[in-house]
Amino acid sequence: MKKHIVILTILFILISINTAFSLESYDYYINPIYQHLINQNQIRIERPIRSGLRSVTCNSYEEFKEAVKTRYNQRITQFKIQLKYDFVFSDVQNIVAQVHDEIMGEDDYLRFTFTSRKTTMNGYDSNVEVIFTMKYLTTAEQEQQVNDRVAEILNEIISQDMTYEEIEKAIHDWVVKNVQYDTSGQEHSAYAALFLGKTVCQGYALLMYKLLTEAGIETKIIDGTADDGSHAWNMVNVCGNWFHVDATWNDPIPDQPDRVLYTYYNLNDSQIEGDHKWERSLFPLATTEYFEGEICANTFTIVGQIITDLPGYETGVKGAAIDLYGPDMSTTSDSDGNFTLAQVPEIEVDYLLKVSAPNFRSYTQALSSVPARLDLGTIKLEIGVMAGTFSQEELDLAIMQAVEQKNYVISQKIAELDALVTENNALSQTYLSLLADYSQLDTAHSEMTSLYSSLNQTYKALSNDHTQLNAQYSDIIDDYNVLSSENDDLNNWVTIFDIHNDRQIGIHEAINALKCATQMPQ
């Protein structure tokens, strides 16, 4: 028993020490694009809801960034992350800001759909709880509706034989024809553009970004000014050339159905800089003058899939490097091993396509002439360390490295499962606690029900007694009335008796007077 008391005392002291040295700070950031929509004082005084938030533990900066990015994309408005790696508490605010800036810098669509972020940090060196409170233009459900509608639109307006130049124009024209400018200035999202039919410049740029990206065309959103007012528009990479596209200013006000302007379509920097201003160092140069039908005339697309026989990679090799030498272009394969090299310039000399990935022998293929779209089909990588002849030791090493890589992936999955098991156990404990509380409440409810039944029976008995007392009271009243009547009769008889008595007295007095008179002398 004493041993248990000592252990509990030590734990209490340790907890007290940790609590005593626990630090807290907060930071809030308002997206400058939407600062006119946000109440800064409201964000400053808002307190996070700590209870009920599930926490995820991150043991590195990279894990932290990935966890935050995932929750941003899921449009989660409040979430909690526990940071446990080497840092000092005073750096946490900068770490959070850096993670946020990197995520937003990698995704223009996300950057233009969040409005504010507040972070509350509590803990100490190398162990901090960070609670994010986010506000977005749209919900996760609305973004899913946007994705579904974008897929439908692209299926309607794009065909396999279209060039990227034709695809870009089809998307631009659809947006201008189907969206009108929100003169009230209330709507800013792609969701509003698609499902309300109106938005301001940010919504135009977001919808253009979504459609172009899903169609395989690289694009960016510029947050700049136009005619000295805040404004947003797109830059689009068409067949290796960057252009400015302002769908908002190409849409007449008031809206004119089916009328599309091209005044601000595929302009270079010098053509648009007269009334549009932006931070040029943040965006690619646009120097090419656009001539319709010429910009993509001499380009083609290469597609394919990287596969292998190595266990665990049957569905495709993710992250394989695809390098095209000649125009010096590169990309990587997706989770299924698929890749696309778009807007490849027309071959003037032989090109060399090289595919490489860790633990595999590289694959090369010479290209001398290609159609507009070259489908290489499946490219099978073989286990190895180099192209050509290699030793058994090298092969064994490559296989060992591949197995170690797979084991590492498996260990990561196991760690994730362990975390889920721990979380599930905690939820089970919570469930059992709630079940016990429910059982107690159920017992109390039964006791209250029994007490209510007893009280109800007592009430009925008292009610019956009350009825009987009322009947007895009525009988007593009747008896009282009878007695009252008889009393009146008695009173009458008393009166008669008094009168009779008075008469008798008078008679006796008269007799006595006569007697006296008869006894007088003659």
Structure description:
- The chain is of the alpha+beta class and 522 residues long.
- It has four domains: 17-136, Ribosomal Protein S8, Chain: A, domain 1; 141-282, C8orf32 fold, CATH 3.10.620; 299-381, Immunoglobulins (Immunoglobulin-like, Sandwich); 394-522.
- The chain contains eleven helices and 19 strands.
- It has helices at residues 2-20, 40-45, 61-73, 92-106, 108-111, 140-157, 164-178, 190-195, 201-214, 269-272, 392-518, and strands spanning 23-30, 55-58, 78-83, 114-124, 127-136, 180-181, 198-199, 219-226, 229-238, 241-245, 265-267, 276-277, 299-308, 321-325, 329-332, 338-345, 351-356, 363-367, 373-381.
- The strands form five sheets. Strands 1-4-5-3-2 form a five-stranded mixed beta sheet. The chain has a five-stranded antiparallel beta sheet with strand order 11-10-9-8-12. A four-stranded antiparallel beta sheet has the order 15-14-17-18, with no helix packed on it.
- Strand 8 and strand 9 (229-238) form a beta hairpin.
- Helix 3 crosses helix 4 and helix 7 (164-178) runs antiparallel to helix 9 (201-214).
- The chain is elongated and about 185 Å long.
Labels describing this entry:
522 residues; alpha+beta; Ribosomal Protein S8, Chain: A, domain 1; C8orf32 fold; Immunoglobulin-like; 4 domains; 5-stranded mixed sheet; 5-stranded antiparallel sheet; 11 helices; 19 strands; 46% helix; elongated
Q: How are the secondary structure elements laid out?
A:
Layout: H1 2-20, E1 23-30, H2 40-45, E2 55-58, H3 61-73, E3 78-83, H4 92-106, H5 108-111, E4 114-124, E5 127-136, H6 140-157, H7 164-178, E6 180-181, H8 190-195, E7 198-199, H9 201-214, E8 219-226, E9 229-238, E10 241-245, E11 265-267, H10 269-272, E12 276-277, E13 299-308, E14 321-325, E15 329-332, E16 338-345, E17 351-356, E18 363-367, E19 373-381, H11 392-518
Parallel strand pairs: 2-3, 6-7, 13-19
Antiparallel strand pairs: 1-4, 3-5, 4-5, 8-9, 8-12, 9-10, 10-11, 13-16, 14-15, 14-17, 17-18
Helix pairs in contact: 3-4, 7-9
